[in-house]
User: Fold this.
Amino acid sequence: MATFRFIALEKTLGRKVEQVKYPSNKVSDYFGSMTFNQSVMHEYLTEAAFRAVMEAVEMGESIDRKAVDQVASAMKAWAISKGATHYTHWFHPLTGSTAEKHDAFINPLSNGLALEHFQGNELVQQEPDASSFPSGGIRSTFEARGYTAWDPTSPAFILDNTLCIPTIFISYTGESLDYKTPLLKSVAALDSIASKICRYFDKNVTKVYPTLGWEQEYFLVDEALYAARPDLVLTGKTVFGHASAKDQQLSDHYFGTINDRALAFMQDLEIEVHKLGIPLKTRHNEVAPSQFECAPMFEEVNVAVDHNQLLMHMLEKVARKHHFKVLLHEKPYAGINGSGKHNNWSLATNTGVNLLSPGRTSKDNFRFVTVLANILMAIHDYEELLRASVASEGNDLRLGANEAPPAVISVFLGKQITEILDEIERMPVLKEINGHNGRHVIKNIPKIPEILLDNTDRNRTSPFAFTGNKFEFRAVGSTANTAKPMFVLNTIVAEQMNKFEQEVSNEIENGLPKDAAIFNVVKRYIKASKNIRFEGNSYSAEWLKEAEKRGLSNNRNTPDALPAFISKKSIGLFEKHNVMTRTELLARYEIKLEKYIKKIQIEARVLGDLAVNHILPTAIQYQNRLIENAKGLQEVLDSKTYVQLSRNQLNTIKEISEHVSSIKEGVVEMVEARKKANVIADYAQKAVAYRDTVLPCFDVIRGHVDKLELLVDDNLWPLPKYRELLFIK
Ligand code: ADP
Ligand code: MG
Assistant:
C-alpha cells in the first residue's frame, strides 16, 4: 500500500499553475477598494463628520457622539453596498494573532421582516465574551469582561463579506489585553517629546510619528505534503528530516527567478491585499529554497502593524487557492535559513521630514545627528529590553543559534555616518556638519547611465542597522505581532529624548546658547553610547567575546531574555510614559512564559508520537526485511561466502537496532523530563526546566531519526523528506 507520503507526492505532480485574474490593468483602480478610506468617507460623510474623523486620525482628538453615529451609518451603507452581511471588531489579543467575532447587520422586526442595523454604539464598543483569551491573570474567569473599542486611526475593511473594524481590547478594570493599546500609547509618548525636540530646529513641527516598513519572510510548501507531515500541521515546523543533498549551498534561490506556481500565488496575494489598502510593493525569493519575502511601502506604525497582521492572515488564505501552505514559523526546517521580519523604522514629522534622513545643509545634519545620538543612547541603555521584545520559542532558533542576527543587540551605522560622528567627537565647538550625503556616483561603465550609490554600505549581520534613512531591526521573528518590538522601541526613544531635553535645558540654564547646548549633549551621547556600536561581522565568535567585555547582554533564549521585561527599570520606564502598568507587564511576562512552555510541550508530544508511531515501526519493518534477507542468504550461500558478504548487511541491522533503541530511550527520557517539569508551579522555573531538560532531548532523538532516514528503504519512509518539501514542483 502506498504511504501517505507517496499519495501526497503524486498530488504535487499534478498541480497546475492557477490562473490569476487582475480586476483591472491599473492597480489604482482597485487599491483600497475594500477599505473605508478617506475618499469613501468624503463620499459618505457630512463635512463635519469627515473633519471629526480626520482630526482623530491626525491629532488624536476624540470623536463626538453625533459624528460617531454618522460614521457608523456611513460604514454600514458602504459595507452593504460592497456585499457585507456581517461586522466584527477586529483586535490583537495576547495570543499574538488576531481575533474577531462576527455579528450580522440583521435586526428582526416584530412583523416578521428584518432591517439592516448598525449604530454608533456598535461601532465604538463591543463586549466579546473574552474569558478564553490569555490575560496573564489580570482577569479571572468570573470577571471575564473584556471590551473592544474602535481605533479610528486604522481604516475599517471588508474581508469575506464582513466589515472588520480595528479595535483595541481592554479589560473591565481598564488594563490592556492586546498589543495595539500599548503601541498607541507609545506613539503618543514619543510624539509629545520628539515634537518638542524637533522644534529646536523647526518651529513648525507639531507632530512626530514613527513609520514602519516591515519585510515579511515565509516558506511555501505544497498542501498535500504539508498534510502528510503531522509536525508541520501541529507545530508549524518539521521536528525530523535529514538535510537534503542540495538545499541553499549554491545560493541559487536568493533573488532567483520565481517559480510559476509561487508567482501566481504572489500575484493573487497582491491583488487581494491591495484591495485591502496594504501597499505591498516588493516580492522576491529568499535564501532558502521555497523561502520568499514580501514588503510594502512604509506607513505610520499603527497602520503598518495592522497591515502586517492582516497580511499574515491573507498569506494563509490566498495560499489555499494555490494549494500551498504558508509556513510563518521562524525555523520550519533545520539546517537552512529561518524566517524573520525586518522592521524598518524611522520618525517622520508633520512638516514632511524624515528625521533619519541625513540632510543637505549643515542645519539639517545637526538635526539628523541629534536624533541619531538619542536613538543610539536609547538602544545603549535598553538593549536588553529590546532583545526581550522579540523573544519567543521559535525565534530562539534564529537568535543565538548561529543564524540571522545574534541575540546580542548592537547598532551598525556604516562608514559615512561613523565618520560624521567621529568628526563631531573631535570638534571642540559646533561647526558645520558636513553631509557626506550626496550619494556618490559611478560613471565609468560604458553605455550605462551614471549610477547613484547609497550613503551607507550594508551589513546583513547586524540586528539594528542604519540603512540610509531608517533603522532596520532584524531580530523580529516572522510570526511576531510586530507591535511588541515597536512599542518598546518607541518608548525607549521617548524616554531618552526626555532625558535629552532635560540635559539641554540644564546646559542652557548654565548660560550656553541653544545650539551649543544641544551640541554638547549630542557629543556626550556619541561618546557614551559607543559600546552599542559595532561595524563588523555580528556572527563571529570574536564579536561575542568582545560584546561580553563591553557588558552587552547575550540572552540566547526566551527564559533568559524575558525577565528584562519586568525589571524595576522596565516597569519604571513603561509606567512613566503611560504605556503599560506593572500589572500589564507582569501579565504579558506570564503569558509569554506560558506560551513558551506550551509550545515546547506540544512539540515534545508531536515528536514523541512521530518517533514511536511512525518512525520506529518503519525502521523495524525494514530491519525485519534485512533479517529475512540475511537468513535467505545464509541458506543459499556457503558459510565462508556468507560471512564475507553479509557483513555490511548485518552491520546495517545492528545500526538500525542501535538507533531504534536510542530513540526509545530518548522518548522515555523526554516524557520523564516533561512529567517532572509539569509539576513545577512557578512559570519562570517551569520554562527553565523545559529549556534545560525537555528541549535537549529533541536534538538527540532527531539525530537518530535522521540517520534512520538515510538507512531505511525510501519506499517505506512515511514522512515527506526535505528534498521533497523544499522544492516546489
Ligand atoms: P531593503 O533594501 O533592505 O529591502 P528597501 O529600501 O527596499 O530596503 O526598504 C525596505 C522597507 O523599508 C520598505 O518597506 C520601505 O518602505 C521601508 N522604508 C523606507 N523608508 C522608510 C522610512 N523612512 N521609515 C520606515 N520604513 C521605511
Ligand atoms: Mg531590508
